[in-house]
Amino acid sequence: MSTDNTDSSKDRADRGGDPNRRIAEAILPLVGGAANVTSVTHCMTRMRLGLADRSLVQDEPLKALPDVLGVVEDDTYQIVLGPGKVARVTPQFEALTQEAAEAEAQPAAATAAAGGDTKGTDGEPAAGTAGSATTAKTADELAAEGAAIRAARKQKNATPVKLMLRRIANIFVPLIPALIGCGIVAGLNGLFTNAGWLPALTPALTAIASGFMSLIAVFVGINTAREFGGTPVLGGAAAAVIVFPGVADVSAFGEKLAPGQGGVLGALFAALLAVYVEKGCRRVVPSAVDVLVTPTVTVLVAGLVTLFGLMFVCGEIATGIGHLADWLLQHGGAAAGFLLGGLFLPLVMLGLHQALIPIHTTLIDQSGYTVLLPILAMAGAGQVGAAIAIYLRLRRNTSIRKTIRSALPAGFLGVGEPLIYGVSLPLGRPFVTACVGGAFGGGVVGLFYQLGTSVGSTAIGPSGWALFPLLKGNHGLGAIAAIYALGLAAGYVAGFVATYFFGFSKQMLNELNAAAQDGAATEPQPSAQPPASGGTDPAPAPAPAGGPGGTLA
Q: For 397-443, what is the HEC assignment?
């Protein structure tokens, strides 16, 4: 690990021993250095970077890092690190870029020279890497195909509707950490309440779990204004009208309003209206009185329209969404679950899955959990089952098997992008059979809903095994967890069986295994990285932002 010559303090050395710091230090030079990074943010699974010059990024060495699950190119350059880890690495990466930028002038020449010396180990062709490249040939070809598919998808998804859906996702994705945290606290509170444990603590847990949800409209308003170019606090002010207790004294369409009526949808439209009112005022109000007139007109107009229109209309829409979800699963049962679980991955490919984010949030706001997410999470289970089948069918293909071994643990935890874009989708038929696995898993969960047991999630984002702490429904946690586990098992088994027996033609098997066998002769050759690091494993290119498992990254 290299350290900054301009910073030799003990604190710097201590930070250097942090594994998250080491990951950040490994990533920074591969994305073009601090000078090439214009912005740094993160979501549930991905560190999102704004780049000044995309051509400076060394994609293959970056994908080969053991801690990088893959990369995504969208409106930002996204490095998939996985849930939990991304929240620890990103602050270290930000600190590192700041330190490097401050010291850039002095060590620039030394850095350039060091870059030339280490060129072979940073991903440029070196004498010792020939064997590794040959071994990984097949997986690299799949990754290239996955990248091509992703590029084509990105081009097709650049439509006004899909760009709008992406912006809506940008409003709700930042809320996911709070939804998860409060959801887990709510689950603990329910467990303690049902068991009669710690009665003095449960009221406090209720307050912690419910406080955010009671004000979620305000946060939606702030994020909406920020996303659409308005003043965030004015968007929050417009949306705050919805949760103010005093709205119970206001009547609209002949009915008394209720605090919270309209929920997150009302907050979104209230803040969006505030943005357009604010922008209109900025164009016509003299600058001398802008600071007084624009905020006043913005909150007044948006507030009145919200009270006497949006709250009622959006309240009806939100209620309709809840009734529709209940009706769909109550009457459709296994068939509805089968369709939802099987079609989710194609929705992701089309970029339409982002439309589900406000629906999930609305259901959570209404009943405390969304019944759709556990069903949609079965798509990831189908991918895991399919990956295991591919691993067994391609016994001679050491390259693809390495990719699966590296991506499978993340797949079990709900991060399915590496398996999708690095393995199943480029192969073609295994992607379809993986969808079959997700359909069967969704069918199991849907069947139990029709039989009277609803399985829901108190937050959006996690899936796979990571969803267990967030489960909630109309029965005890044990019964709900058992049904969800049964759905996962069905997805694993169905995805495995469908892929093992129907995922490959004879020609595919012959070509894939033959290609790997031809390259296997050179596998013992030394590589530029130590075998124990896992750095020579081919890293797949993951799915678009918000895919399953990061479902909503």
A: CHHHHHHHHHHHHHHHCCCCHHHHHHHHHHHCHHHHHHHHHHHHHHH
